[in-house]
Each structure stands twice: as structure tokens, then as C-alpha cells.
Amino acid sequence: MNKITNPGILRWRLLLGEAAKSNLGQLDEGYLKIDAALEWLYGQDPSKTEQGERSADLGDSRLTVPEWINEINELFPKEVIERLEKDAIELYGIDEVVTNLEVLERIEPSETLLKAVLHTKHLMNPDVLAAARKLVQAVVKQIMDRLAKEIRQSFSGTRDRNKPSSIKIARNFDFKRTVKTNLHRFDAKTKKLYIDSPAFMSRVKKHTEKWDLFLLVDQSGSMVSSVIHSAVMAACLWQLPGMKTHLIAFDTQIVDLTSNVNDPVELLMKVQLGGGTHINKAVAYTQSRISNPSRSLIVIISDFYEGGSESDLVRIVQTAVQAGTKVLGLAALDSTAHPNYDKALATRLVAVGAQIGAMTPGQLATWLAEKIQG
């Protein structure tokens, strides 16, 4: 079947849905997810809502309500998202997340549900919002417990292989010295080495005073996973001695959330997802807050689809690097570190001294520790 190339026919195909495929043609791969998201909603039978037949996961649909909410926030602009949400609630009665307090109170907390709550909290009444806050708190605690350990390990100092340690913890285990000092206990018959005295190496902690870390977080809908992990990471880093962590959210406007950086739940409830992306404004704002460039790090967490001036962004980043500030750009910051970003703009930023990549929070913590301690 031929792929649709005519823009007018494409719009009719998306409007009419799956039923028009045989007459109008096959959608290109890039539009299949859009078609699936629209079909998920407009392919529903409104009469089933009135008869009470709709289940919590909407029957046989592949997507749950939270997954669908997250999907449309990645695929559509803000005005389309608002229309889809309005139709979902008013036409089809899909209120499992945004208006149904009972469902929200009994549902199992998960990162997928947290994303959906952040996308739709502006639609919630006060009672539902209070329940949503508890859910946010539960998921944030799960992430924070995991992430705090990774960060502590990264900043606990480098290992000194020449100096033994009496602190017997796994990450200080010295394999080579352990084998060497216990070779006399090797049993040739069983071919096993019996360990009597495990060896450990010490760590050298380095001074990390007066460092300013600026986390600049793109709050467009597609970056929600990175927003969540940035908020939690900022709270973990805020607890480290010798480091001041700033958190700045941006779309076309700048919101300095540093005053809430020690409370990731409050921080996430203040984030407004969606809108455009002006990275250059966020970096320019950060530049004005830097007092000691050689002791400052800027981490830009964005997909780098710049809605403002790309040339201004490149120029501002170059100025920061030349002044001695370390600049890291992250196309993704979550547990999967799966990037989707403007590679052309990223290449231009690398050319002026920035480092661009995609990292898990643990990998970012390791990078920060290396830059600060090295």
C-alpha cells in the first residue's frame, strides 16, 4: 500500500482514522503514533461510558490512561493537548486520573503515573490534587532512595590503591591485594582460593568548596522524565557539603526554583509542563548568576530543539566556556538515558566547548564528581 505524501490527504487520514486506510493509503512511520493516540480516544464508544462499561485501563486498549496522557504530551502542541484532554473528560468520561479521587487513592504509585499527574495537575480539583501530591511523594521517595546512594558513592572520593583501609565496605574491596596475600591458602585439589584476610583500599577525599552547580531543565512535555530526575537529583546534591545547587526550569520563560531545591515534591508540583523552548534565555539568565566561572558548572537538560535563536545560544555557551565555566548538555536524564535531540545544534555546541550526551542520574553524578574532585 502506498504511503501518503499529500499534506491534505494526510490530514483527512488522521481525521477519519483507521477506517480510511484502505482508501487513502498507509501512514508514514512518523505519523503512526499520532494516529494511534487519536484512535485510542476517538475510537472509543461514548455509549459505553454512559452504561458504566469503561474499565480502569479502558478494556483491550494497549495504553493505560496515564500512558496515553504521557504519549499525547510528547506528540502534540499545547493547544491540541488541551482539546484532547477536554474531549477525554467531557465526551468520553475518562476521568481515572484527573478527576476520580477514589481511583487515584487506590492506584499503585509508579513513574508512569507520576508523569501523567504532572501533565494533568492543572485539571485537578483540590481534593484530587491533595491525593496526587501523596502519589508524587511516594514515587519521589522511591527514586530518591535509589539515587541518593549512587550520588554518595560518586562523591565519596577516589580510591588509593597504594594505601590499605580498615573500612571494610564492598566498594573499597582490593581484589589484587586480596588474592596476593591469600595465595598460600590456595587448594590445588579443589582449585579454590580460601580468603582469610580480605584487603581494602582507602579513599582520598578531595576538597570541594565553593562550587556552584546550575541545573537548567527544559520543561517541555517530552522532557518530563528528565524533569522528574532533575528535581530528585537536585535535592540529593543540595545535601552535599561545599556545593550550592541551583535549579532553573524554562520554556519560553525562566522559573528559578532554587528556593525549593531541597523539596522535590513541592518543586515538581510547581513545574508547568508544555510550551516552547528558549534555551538561550535560560543560559543567559544563568550567566548573570555566576560569580566565579572557574568554580561553576552548567548542566543543560534539554532536547535542544531551540525555539529561540540558535546563534545566540551558541554564542552564550562559548562565552561561558571561555570564562572557565564547565558546560554539559544532556539530551536525556532518566533511568534509560534514551536520547531524542537536535543533533545539528548539539554539534555546534560541542564545537564551542560544551560536552553533549545522555546519562542516567548515576552517570551524571560520576561526571560531576570527576570535574569537581579532579
UniProtKB/TrEMBL annotation:
Pfam families: VWA_CoxE (PF05762)
Taxonomic superkingdom: Bacteria
Domain spans labelled VWFA: 210-369
Cited InterPro entries: LolB (IPR050458), Uncharacterised_CoxE (IPR008912), VWF_A (IPR002035), vWFA_dom_sf (IPR036465)
Cited PANTHER family: OUTER MEMBRANE LOLAB LIPOPROTEIN INSERTION APPARATUS (PTHR30634), OUTER-MEMBRANE LIPOPROTEIN LOLB (PTHR30634:SF16)
Name of the protein in question: VWA domain containing CoxE-like protein
Taxonomic placement: Bacteria, Pseudomonadati, Pseudomonadota, Gammaproteobacteria, Enterobacterales
